[in-house]
Amino acid sequence: MKRISILGSTGSIGTNCLNVIESQQGEFQVNYLTNYKNIQLLFEQAEKFRPNAVAIFENDKVAEYLPRFKKIGVEVYTGFEGILEVSRKEDVDILVNALVGAVGLQPTLNAIRKNVRIALANKETLVIGGRFVMEKARQEGAEIIPIDSEHSALLQCIAGEDSEKIKCVYLTASGGPFREFSSDDFSNVTVEQALNHPNWDMGQKVTIDSATLMNKGLEVIEAHWLFNLKPAEIQVVIHPQSIIHSMVEFADGSIKAQLGVPDMRIPIQYALTYPKRLSADFPRLDFLTLKELTFEQPDFEKFRCLKLSYQALETGGAAPAVLNAANEVAVNLFLTRKIGFEEIPQIVEKALTNCKFNNCDKVEDLLQYDKLTRDYVLNELN
Ligand code: MG
């Protein structure tokens, strides 16, 4: 049995992951769980999966729940320090990092050790610290396996191939809810509209990122680190049906694609069992009811965040960390109705232009740039 730790078990990826684990009796044992806000759901998960310990990020109801966790024999850690504590545990074969945002970087680095697998849903880990994370994983002999559906698709297409023969990859993007909007329409977009994704059911942050196409931009950077690809070798294609999850073109002109219904349990299970496949009763793709598969060029001017992501990747160093931090703050401000939808790319662009990022020889430098960028954005807006 593989011993599993899930950081962010009460979110969309976390609950889907537990769903997969529950459906594969005898394959996995849950040793650690951590939440962000939903303490009641974390308790229910702990009752069902009986981990050794949980880490509770949110603090105000801990006192009320402590005796209940104690009664079922589950140790409790608290705060971000608690999540870091869990990420350092050694009785874990697979650490699922389903945290949202830059906070996911340090736990990933903590968890990297010989023979461990990091099943990575937290793309910020690679966007910010890709160089350090991949380097440490190589040195220690740890695996970084993506959960993100596009990168899972790439991994499945590349399996068994010579990586030297990859000509380019195509990351597919649904285009989000505003694919057919004009730039002028963006100033009227409401939070509710932006949270209404046509194909995928995800957390709020990634849903807004999908609406601005920042999510795809972050995925370009993620693909760069995971598969050692140059920016020009990573193409984005709008594919509104979200059936093809990504494609790889090889030197001989052959293209492999991975297809399936948009259900995150498929890439989650693959990340847990790779390179094996286990049977599952997930919904199946029915070709006969598929009306069409269409493809479009992304509009880099309308969706500036995608363009800015390529720029940050080309610039390198701390630029992706600045891009990500500015976006995290901007998305949060949009969700709390303090700025308009059209301001998200403007804020990111301003941060990339005005924040200096010269030295970044260590992870601490990146975390420092992350903090400086957040301060810069909030100061600018005040
Ligand atoms: Mg994705």
Output the CATH class name of the largest domain: Alpha Beta
- Count, helices: 15
The residue-averaged pLDDT reads: 95
What's the CATH topology name of the largest domain? Rossmann fold
The main pleated sheet reads as: 7 strands, parallel
Unreliable spans are none
Computed CA radius of gyration, to the nearest angstrom:
20 Å
Overall domain count:
2
Task: Trace the largest sheet across and list its strands.
Answer: 4-3-2-1-5-6-7
Instruction: Give the helix level as a range of percent.
Output: 40-55%
Superfamily at the CATH H level of the largest domain? NAD(P)-binding Rossmann-like Domain
Report the principal-axis shape.
Answer: globular
What binds here, in terms of ligands, is:
magnesium ion
Q: How many beta-strand elements?
A: 11
Q: What is the CA–CA distance across the termini?
A: 53 Å
Q: Strand content of the residues, in percent?
A: 15-25%
- Which second-level CATH architecture of the largest domain applies? 3-Layer(aba) Sandwich
Description:
With 382 residues, this protein is an alpha/beta fold. It has two domains: 2-146, Rossmann fold; 161-261 and 293-315, no CATH class. It has helices at residues 12-23, 39-49, 62-71, 79-87, 105-111, 124-140, 149-158, 191-194, 204-212, 214-227, 265-273, 304-315, 319-335, 343-354, 363-381, and strands spanning 2-7, 28-34, 53-56, 75-78, 94-97, 117-120, 143-146, 166-173, 234-238, 244-250, 255-259. Strands 4-3-2-1-5-6-7 form a seven-stranded parallel beta sheet, sandwiched between helices. The chain has a four-stranded mixed beta sheet with strand order 9-8-10-11, with helices on one face. Strand 6 (117-120), helix 6 and strand 7 form a beta-alpha-beta unit. Helix 12 packs antiparallel against helix 13 (319-335). The radius of gyration is 20 Å and the shape is globular. The termini are far apart. The mean pLDDT is 95. Residues 148-150, 219 line the site of magnesium ion (MG).
